[in-house]
Amino acid sequence: MDLKLGGKTVLITGAGSGMGQHMAVGFASEGAKIAVNDIDPKGVAETIAQVKAAGGQAYDATADITDLGNVKDMIAATESALGGIDILINNAALLTEHTLYLETDPEACAREIAVILFGTMHCSRAVLPGMIERGAGKIINIATDAARVGQEREANYSAAKGGVISFTKSLAKEVGRHNVNVNVVSPGATNSPMRIGLQEEMRKKLGDERWKEREQKVMRMYPLRRIGEMEDITNTVMFIASDAARQITGQVLSVNGGFAMVG
Ligand SMILES: NC(=O)c1ccc[n+]([C@@H]2O[C@H](COP(=O)([O-])OP(=O)(O)OC[C@H]3O[C@@H](n4cnc5c(N)ncnc54)[C@H](O)[C@@H]3O)[C@@H](O)[C@H]2O)c1
After folding, report:
1. What band does 1 get if pLDDT is binned at 50, 70 and 90?
2. What amino acid positions are annotated as catalytic residues?
3. What mean pLDDT is predicted for residues 148-173?
4. Average pLDDT over residues 221-248
5. Residues with CB under 6 A from ligand 1
6. Domain assignments of the chain as residue spans, ordered by start
7. Over pLDDT 90: what percentage of the chain?
8. Phi, psi for 84 (deg, rounded to 5)
9. CA of residue 142 to ligand 1 center, whole Å
10. What's the CATH code, domain 9-189+228-255?
């Protein structure tokens, strides 16, 4: 299926690593122009190099998305460099602590909510006037199945992502009449470098044998008996961002090997 993403301007937040970086290269391979946002300029430079190596066009949109002023400046600069943003992917996130809620640091909690929820809301606020004026746009918010079914030791992160899901549905109702689709793609466990790093830490902490037992237990929670790969997420996001998915809005699509089946 030709997704007709060629020539589209795509802004991806948190694209300096992991899934955001993978999506940047994926969209560029389809001929889209990529605005690469991240708070980490080194990550942005790395992604731009990868996009260029794939024959694509990329723009440095480094910014901290927790600040609305920064976001407005970054989006204005992106639009004068690449043209109006057709597709916004709110992917940036932060998971600072894996601990029981009562043991979490309130400041770390506030930062997670600022990046995940306010970052998504700020970027949406800044791109929407242009999308509405042009009568077209796609916003894809990356959540997590932890927000759909709950996850112990991730209460702050799940709360922020749950907010993103509710925001998506309400916004979809407001902007549908302007031909703007707003959806959530919700990954289950996915082998990004971030997850692989966490797994490595856990293997060291638990020792090989206990870690293997834990892995087997985790795998049994996935009916397809596999952990997701980054391409599983990129492929789904590209479909939702295309006009092949024009009738889909306000939805939460899990990409999770069957981990959670939410009606
Ligand atoms: N990997 C998984 O198993 C998994 C599972 C479910 C959901 N997700 C979600 O998928 C998305 C990508 O995850 P990943 O594994 O690639 O993680 P990652 O940590 O590699 O990517 C997140 C990026 O966001 C950036 N970022 C953080 N704060 C920012 C800020 N203030 N402004 C701009 N950028 C900022 C980080 O620098 C980082 O590059 C996230 O939304 C994550 O919550 C991941």
Report:
1. confident
2. 157
3. 97
4. 97
5. 13-14, 16-20, 37-40, 43, 64-66, 91-94, 115, 119, 142, 144, 187, 189-190, 192, 194-195
6. 9-189+228-255, 191-227
7. 97
8. -50, 140
9. 9
10. 3.40.50.720
